[in-house]
Amino acid sequence: MSVTCLKNWLEKQVSVCPLTYAVILSIGAFTLARFLFKTWLVFSQTFIFSGKSLKQFGAMRGAWAVVTGASDGIGREFALQLGSAGFNVLLVARNQAMLSDVASEIAERTAGRAESKIYVLDFAKKDTEAFGGLKSLLDNLDVGVLVNNVGKSHVMPTYFAETTDQENEEIVIINVDTMIRVTHAVLPGMVQRKRGLIFNVGSFAGQVPSPMLATYSGTKAFMSTFTSALAEEVWKYNIIVQHLNTYFVVSKMSNIRKSSALVPTPRAYVRAALSKVGLACGAAMTERPGTLTPFWSHALLDYLIHVIGWKSAFISYTHALHKDIRRRALRKLERKAKSQ
């Protein structure tokens, strides 16, 4: 069909059903406008806009930041950077020696201006008495920021039928129960003071179901939904609750030791998170209120996943990736056993 014939045919169709074509054109224009606005919003929040100032949550005014899993990795960096930003810091984890090192570094970086406290607690043990002691301590602190960072994944990618009851139970206790209990201990004080920031450190595994990490993936999906619900409850008290949607970061949990454009160091990741408080970046307009994908490459990947929208393909890719990771992990264990 020639261009002229096609043009004449279209004009004839429009003249016969003008309302139908007006509706189709309007829907197309709206869809395009929404896509362009979302693209602009994602790129602007990721690369241009700054988030809310930490002073809004009590920085430089004697408020405390509470960080769980503060002995290493992302938690350690949150503790250090929040101390440098003007918060006193309560460090919570199970390794006293490592927590003491973090406390010493906070004192050194801030020349003693930031106070730090240590509370040793192994969340996996569900020690009611120990948690009661933590709650009593929190009741007497002006908590401006809570970072629910402590987390646990599987030792290696494993099919659910082959996992152990103990591993699954510990993942649920640490990733879900601990987050709920610590948040519930801190939140009433934030409501009373009418200010607060809560970061729940999540994972892409919560938005793309991850075969061979099924229990971990499920707990991170819970975290995302819990955050969205809680954020709506407390925004009227000037409390911001955000789920930090995180791809790979250099850490012991990820078993990645070398950084790259897609795998930041904990320092770079935390710096990005603290600079984007209240924004969404890559999670903008994706039906996940309260979610923030702060690091620039993670934000672009998040945006791409939702533009493509073919979740089953990403699930299949993740499955293949985890099968490869498991094969390499098992070969490493075999080599280690032979060398002993």
UniProtKB/TrEMBL annotation:
GO biological-process terms attached to the record: fatty acid elongation
SUPFAM superfamilies: NAD(P)-binding Rossmann-fold domains (SSF51735)
One Pfam short name: adh_short
Pathway where it operates: Lipid metabolism; fatty acid biosynthesis
Active site per database record: Y216 (proton acceptor)
Catalyzed chemical reaction(s): a very-long-chain (3R)-3-hydroxyacyl-CoA + NADP(+) = a very-long-chain 3-oxoacyl-CoA + NADPH + H(+)
Gene Ontology cellular component list: endoplasmic reticulum membrane
InterPro entries hit by this protein: 3_ketoreductase_fungal (IPR027533), NAD(P)-bd_dom_sf (IPR036291), Sc_DH/Rdtase_CS (IPR020904), SDR_fam (IPR002347)
Residue sites binding substrate per the record: S203
Stated name of the protein: Very-long-chain 3-oxoacyl-CoA reductase
One GO MF term attached to the UniProt entry: very-long-chain 3-oxoacyl-CoA reductase activity
Broadest EC class assigned to this enzyme: oxidoreductase
Compartments, as annotated in UniProt: Endoplasmic reticulum membrane
Transmembrane segment boundaries: 19-37
Major subcellular site: endoplasmic reticulum
Enzyme nomenclature, EC number: 1.1.1.330
Endoplasmic reticulum keyword on record: yes
UniProt organism field: Pisolithus tinctorius Marx 270
Protein origin, superkingdom: Eukaryota
Membrane topology, record value: Single-pass membrane protein
Similarity comment text for this entry: Belongs to the short-chain dehydrogenases/reductases (SDR) family.
Keyword list, A-Z: Endoplasmic reticulum, Fatty acid biosynthesis, Fatty acid metabolism, Lipid biosynthesis, Lipid metabolism, Membrane, NADP, Oxidoreductase, Transmembrane, Transmembrane helix
Function: Component of the microsomal membrane bound fatty acid elongation system, which produces the 26-carbon very long-chain fatty acids (VLCFA) from palmitate. Catalyzes the reduction of the 3-ketoacyl-CoA intermediate that is formed in each cycle of fatty acid elongation. VLCFAs serve as precursors for ceramide and sphingolipids.
